[in-house]
Amino acid sequence: MNLLYLGLLLFVTLLTTLYLASSKAIFAFSDWTFHAARVEEIYLNLKSGSFFTFIAARTFHNTGAASFLFYPYIFFYPWAFLRFILSPVNTFYAWYALVTFATATISYFSMKAYSKKSLASFIFSLVYTFAPYRLYLGGAVFGEYLAVTFLPLLFLGIYEVLWGDKKKWYLLAISGALVAYAHILSVFLSLEFAVILFIIKLITSRGISKDRIKSLILSAGVCVFLVLPVIVPFFTDFIGQGLSSAKPSISYTMGPRYLLLNSFSAQKGWKLSFMLMLTILTAWAFIKSRRNWIIYGLGLFACFLTTRYFPWKLTAGTPFEMVQLTARYLSYASLFLTILFALGSSSVLEEHVTGRKKLALSCSLAVFMALFSLSSLSVYRDTLKHVQDMPKTSANSIQPAPFKRLRDYNYYNQFNYKILFGAFDYMPKSSLTSVQKQNSLLMHQAYLNGKTLTLSPLIKANQISYQVKSEKAADVDLPVIAYKHTTVSVNGQKHTFRRGNRGTVVVGLKRGQNTVTVGYKASPVFYLSIVISILSWLALLIYLVKFKAKYAQ
């Protein structure tokens, strides 16, 4: 049955993706330009023979922004590699299909391990993978979109360590690492629910055994080794460097009425599906086990967190403000409520369906979910028909990227606009103290001898060069961000520099024509962290092979 269900999941994945891809266009909204620029940088660096990307030399207006150091990007490599064989638009939809099918597959086998029921796992995978909020994320919010892929495995790992087979601690280590490589904020959100589950375990079981504590600590320790390349840059380049990050604030909450009524509409967005809303309204009537009551409570609590009725004002000045958008909790509400929906509906169906009828039922469910998803995506398709193409703009424009349509022929236009969200993330706080400073970076403005110069950068991977002519010895303030491990050379010779009041590279020049090159050289500790991480993954793989062999006996 596994092959049948996986085949049906692939069918729904391809059908929905082809429906979007047939538009031959992309709607560049929300975080699209931020992530598209990151992928473009990775692709161009790969094309020039550089595997690692540290700073934005070719995109982000050539400011040298280090979003790559502090925002994981490993799962964008498939997107970048596909660019070598496909057009820009088709590349995105191919990557979209890969992530969607990966989500469906991980969801299926995670639920199968939890419930031991194939039909329930199939239903869970369908409803979770093609949930309206996840479909919304797949249009532009790619960090969270990728993290959602691994949440079922993560909470399976938490369940195994706290209630199930504690010898499967590795599930928590692996899934935690995968979420961290996708979206750091999702790690924080997941920890909130992990702590709640731990407290519930202590209360319901009147404590927790030493063996389970050991498994929990082991999984956490191994997870840290697996994600060292994500953690290390924060210690080597972020802490104590006066850098900014995404602004911590609760900027939007929903009303219960909005969540309830919106969930019965067809289109994707900040909502639950009508199936999950019905689960909220009716699940209490058929829940019998304590375990399912816990899941139901977590689902309701996640919904409550999205609303303005949760006292979010009390979180001001605390790490909880990092959430920014409370709609993020919809991913967790979808996860917990879909478990109940899948268990309840599969139990009812299996009582009345056997043999060939079960096959017909599975196919019917796949078709229904495909049609439901196409209905959710139809608004996006309609938008693509009516929105205008993104026009050209100057290479150093300070105009924010508009919500416009991208096609293959105008795909590169987006990179000349100011990135709407995230253009100045992870820059020195001193560079953000005024709009004038921010715009000067975007417009490639340097300062020399009291004059403002507009320079044209010469670009290589992780490296930006400028030709600067000075009539006398003087300091030049370049429009490139200075980080702890930034490197500077003048006329091919390594040169000292300081950080200016814009947070940029300031270097002393001699009289005459100078070629100033600003680059980034990662700390040796970073490369060591990669080696340790790779060895940890290999060691874990060897352990799993031996564990499975021993388990099979």
Describe it.
The structure is a single chain. This protein has 553 residues and is α+β, with helices and mostly antiparallel strands. It has 19 helices and twelve strands. The protein is 54% helix and 10% strand.
Give the overall pLDDT as a whole number: 92
Helical/strand content category? alpha+beta
Based on DSSP secondary structure assignment, what is the total number of beta strands? 12
User: What fraction of residues sit in β-strands?
Assistant: 5-15%
The assembly state of the depicted protein chains is single chain
Largest sheet: 5 strands, antiparallel
Shape: globular
The helix content, as a percent range, equals 40-55%
N-to-C terminal Cα separation, in Å?
Answer: 24 Å
Q: What count of helical segments does DSSP give?
A: 19
Strand order in the largest sheet: 4-3-7-11-10
Radius of gyration: 25 Å
Low-confidence stretches: none
Sum this structure up briefly.
The protein is α+β, with helices and mostly antiparallel strands. The chain contains 19 helices and 12 strands.
